[in-house]
């Protein structure tokens, strides 16, 4: 209905412009308050090389073919070749694939259909047709996470895990640095669809983190499960918090009736869904707030950081936002369904939580840790090889985050039982260990047989800040 309306408005405008003398048409600039008309470049006909991909892969990988055939891309004649085509000299070109065009068992396995292809399809490839989404994504923390990880994380900087533990753990969520050896993607870097994957063409990310191939569905990305594959567990339990919140209850009861397939940018609170999910608050447009692929927008705090600061003051990756503006955006999303007082008071509770966490738990613990290093009772050369280091880490990284995140997203069990409640024994235990060492002057026991602390500690050149030109 909406679409038909937009189309007819457009057609009337076109007719209107066309029927005027050319001098008037020259003012064909959209007024500043007029929504930008989205442009798509669509190649209407499919080249014979493109038909070959479809016909052969329909037999070879029916799963891939069927997903693609059900996608919006297929209905717009966007085919395999539009995304996978490469140049002969590209580093990521699949050398093995050329052999597919020397097959006698397949009608399309002939040299006349031959084109270079690559298995990797990066945000840069999508940007040909979706420049706005890619631009927003490229400035997000999702895209730049490897840089942040290598700046702040002792697991990496002190080599406290093995390269394989990183490949199979960290990089599946955060993204690998894709490497190619002898024309093949290497097993230690591929597959990976982590949010900040660094691609051979220099672009960052993998759009399939949320829009799995080959459906590339908006409906799927809107569902909380799309986020929950990474946003879970003891240190960032957003999916658990959401599930226990009233919003999550409503999703459990009514989610099957939500209009997940509303056209991009038109998904409307109250009309298409009754209770918000992750995407409603962090990505999708709502009221006057526009859709964004930069999840750092709409945030007023760095709730995952050891000391909670505003995003623009987060030194490892200062956001180019102003927290007050972002707070207003988030509040106006809530106000699609809640009154102002409800929302203001919710955020007053969050701000109070942040202040208590910082002043009562984090700062005193941090002061004690510094003192322990100064007195030589803890060894600074490695992190995680002494008990108080682990306790300190878990205080902010596990319980402390759960407490702050629980309050932010209205999950009281995480705010208190998994949060503030758990911080108390952790804090006491940490202080006890340190005070005892200070009293006796005896350095803390060091784990001598630290298992698998073999990870490479050289920062990969791809994640280093680019040298100034
Ligand atoms: C004659 C059959 C045939 C044709 C035509 C063909 N492919 Fe393939 N392709 C295959 C087979 C078989 C494989 C799997 C090879 C393997 O498992 O090692 C493959 C693998 C791939 C891969 C994965 C490559 C990798 O390195 O992992 C991609 C991507 C791909 N094809 C895309 C395309 C595209 C795009 C086209 C059209 C330009 C195309 N294919 C045409 C048979 C074909
Ligand atoms: C809209 C872009 C797009 C279109 C259209 C598309 N692909 Fe892909 N394809 C991707 C992306 C993205 C990946 C994931 C690669 C990555 O992580 O970089 C992928 C991965 C693949 C892979 C390797 C991964 C695997 O699971 O083995 C194959 C094979 C493949 N595509 C074949 C095809 C075929 C055949 C078609 C046409 C029927 C097609 N693709 C159409 C974007 C596309
Ligand atoms: C050659 C142009 C082209 C390329 C390349 C392309 N797309 Fe698209 N994409 C389109 C068009 C056109 C549509 C709109 C189809 C419609 O509205 O019916 C679309 C729609 C979409 C949608 C919305 C689907 C829905 O459910 O409404 C998503 C998500 C998407 N593309 C993701 C991607 C990703 C991710 C990549 C890169 C891996 C990519 N596209 C590459 C042209 C392209
Ligand atoms: C299950 C997916 C997953 C795995 C596995 C994982 N992470 Fe994360 N990581 C996340 C998510 C999600 C966040 C965002 C937390 C937030 O904002 O609440 C995050 C946050 C971080 C941050 C904080 C970034 C910042 O902006 O301050 C660092 C550093 C980090 N992870 C490093 C690692 C390292 C190193 C490993 C492996 C030893 C790892 N992660 C394993 C998903 C994961
Ligand atoms: C963190 C999850 C996530 C990632 C990663 C992601 N998207 Fe999306 N995308 C979404 C959600 C959610 C929507 C639905 C927005 C709405 O409700 O209209 C969406 C919508 C879209 C649309 C429909 C038009 C629009 O803007 O609403 C396109 C096109 C698209 N994404 C392309 C991309 C491309 C290209 C990438 C990679 C650079 C990408 N997406 C990565 C979550 C994601
Ligand atoms: C493949 C894993 C993955 C998926 C899927 C994913 N994220 Fe993330 N997300 C991460 C990681 C890793 C980080 C931490 C980035 C950092 O701070 O270094 C993160 C960070 C965030 C942040 C914090 C940004 C900031 O500036 O502190 C938000 C908000 C977020 N994600 C929302 C979402 C939403 C909403 C979805 C689903 C639509 C989603 N994510 C899907 C891995 C993922
Ligand atoms: C009702 C709206 C709402 C829903 C639903 C929601 N969030 Fe949030 N989220 C928030 C608010 C509000 C904050 C705190 C924002 C701030 O910094 O002021 C937040 C914070 C976060 C952060 C912390 C960012 C940081 O500072 O490290 C992440 C990550 C996140 N949300 C991911 C998710 C994921 C994943 C889901 C779904 C499982 C989800 N959110 C559901 C509103 C929501
Ligand atoms: C799409 C509509 C919608 C949006 C958007 C929305 N909420 Fe809600 N929210 C609801 C509904 C419906 C309820 C259930 C009210 C009831 O208990 O009857 C609810 C309940 C709540 C509750 C009560 C939780 C409890 O356990 O009692 C809080 C707090 C809340 N929302 C905060 C927020 C905040 C903060 C935002 C924005 C970040 C937000 N909501 C965005 C619909 C929404």
Q: What this model shows, in words?
A:
It contains 21 helices and two strands. With 469 residues, it is an all-alpha fold. The chain has a two-stranded antiparallel sheet. β1 and β2 form a beta hairpin. α3 packs across α4 and α20 runs antiparallel to α21. It starts with a helix and ends in a 29-residue tail after the last helix. The site of one heme C (HEC) has 23 residues, from α7, α8 and α13.
What is this structure's SSE topology?
Elements: H1 2-18, H2 22-25, H3 48-60, H4 62-69, H5 72-75, H6 80-84, H7 123-127, H8 131-138, H9 145-152, H10 154-157, H11 163-168, H12 170-174, E1 180-181, E2 184-185, H13 218-222, H14 224-228, H15 238-244, H16 246-254, H17 278-282, H18 323-334, H19 340-374, H20 387-408, H21 412-440
Antiparallel strand pairs: 1-2
The chain binds heme C (8 copies).
């Amino acid at each position: 209905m909406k679409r038909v309306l937009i189309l007819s408005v457009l057609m009337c405008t076109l007719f209107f412009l066309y029927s005027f003398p050319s001098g008037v048409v020259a003012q064909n600039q959209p007024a500043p308050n007029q929504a930008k008309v989205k442009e798509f470049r669509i190649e209407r006909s499919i080249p014979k090389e493109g038909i070959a991909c479809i016909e052969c892969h329909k037999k070879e990988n029916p799963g891939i073919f069927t997903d693609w055939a059900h996608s919006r891309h297929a209905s717009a004649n966007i085919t395999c070749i539009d995304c996978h085509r490469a140049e002969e000299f590209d580093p990521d070109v699949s050398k093995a694939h050329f052999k597919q065009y020397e097959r006698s068992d397949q009608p399309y396995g002939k040299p006349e259909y031959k084109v270079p292809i690559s298995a990797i399809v990066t945000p840069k490839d999508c940007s040909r047709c979706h420049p706005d989404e890619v631009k927003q994504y490229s400035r997000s923390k999702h895209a730049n996470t490897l840089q942040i990880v290598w700046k702040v994380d002792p697991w990496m900087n002190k080599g406290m895990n093995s390269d394989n533990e990183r490949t199979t753990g960290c990089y599946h969520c955060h993204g690998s640095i894709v490497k190619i050896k002898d024309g093949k993607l290497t097993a230690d870097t591929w597959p990976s669809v982590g949010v900040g994957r660094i691609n051979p063409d220099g672009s960052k990310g993998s759009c399939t983190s949320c829009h799995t191939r080959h459906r590339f569905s908006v409906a799927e990305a809107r569902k909380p499960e799309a986020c929950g594959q990474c946003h879970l567990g003891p240190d960032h339990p957003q999916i658990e918090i959401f599930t226990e919140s009233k919003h999550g209850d409503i999703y459990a009861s009514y989610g099957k009736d939500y209009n997940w397939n509303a056209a991009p940018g038109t998904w409307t609170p109250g009309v298409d869904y009754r209770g918000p999910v992750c995407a409603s608050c962090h990505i999708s447009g709502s009221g006057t707030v526009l859709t964004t692929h930069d999840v750092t927008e709409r945030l007023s705090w760095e709730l995952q950081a050891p000391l909670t600061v505003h995003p623009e003051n987060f030194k490892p990756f200062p956001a180019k936002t102003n927290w007050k503006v972002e707070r207003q955006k988030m509040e106006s999303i809530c106000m699609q369904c809640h009154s102002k007082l409800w929302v203001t008071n919710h955020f007053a509770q969050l701000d109070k939580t942040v202040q208590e966490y910082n002043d009562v738990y984090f700062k005193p613990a941090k002061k004690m840790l510094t003192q322990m290093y100064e007195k030589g009772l803890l060894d600074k050369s490695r992190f995680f090889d002494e008990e108080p280091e682990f306790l300190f880490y878990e205080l902010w990284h596990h319980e402390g985050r759960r407490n702050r995140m629980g309050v932010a997203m209205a999950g009281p069990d995480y705010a208190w039982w998994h949060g503030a409640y758990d911080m108390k024994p952790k804090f006491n235990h940490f202080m006890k260990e340190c005070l005892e060492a200070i009293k006796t002057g005896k350095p803390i026991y060091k784990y001598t047989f630290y298992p698998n602390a073999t990870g490479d500690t050289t920062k990969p050149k791809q994640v280093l800040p680019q040298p100034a030109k």
